[in-house]
């Protein structure tokens, strides 16, 4: 065993339909959220258990969401995977 782990299948870029909110779920368990023209508006760590995601912002804010049929539902937002 090499000690390397594969990135979670949900790692990648997730965006709202209008492109205003963008979540980069990084393979190392960190995320970077952009809002509008503000890059890195929020950053922190995340953990995915099954189809549920928990976020812990570096400022202490917490949030969660669920992946359903390839769509991320998070804090009243609907995000789609960006190819």
From TrEMBL:
Keywords tagged on the record: Plasmid
Highest taxon in the source lineage: Bacteria
Q: Which InterPro entries match?
A: Atu4866-like_sf, Uncharacterised_Atu4866
The protein here is known as Atu4866 domain-containing protein
Specify the taxonomic lineage: Bacteria, Pseudomonadati, Pseudomonadota, Alphaproteobacteria, Hyphomicrobiales
């Amino acid at each position: 065993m090499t000690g390397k782990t594969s990135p979670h299948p949900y790692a990648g870029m997730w965006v709202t339909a209008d492109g205003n909110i963008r979540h980069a779920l990084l393979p190392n368990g960190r995320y970077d959220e952009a809002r509008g023209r503000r890059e890195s508006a929020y950053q922190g760590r995340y953990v995915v258990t099954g189809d549920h995601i928990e976020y812990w912002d570096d400022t202490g804010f917490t949030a969660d969401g669920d992946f359903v049929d390839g769509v991320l539902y998070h804090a009243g937002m609907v995000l789609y995977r960006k190819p």
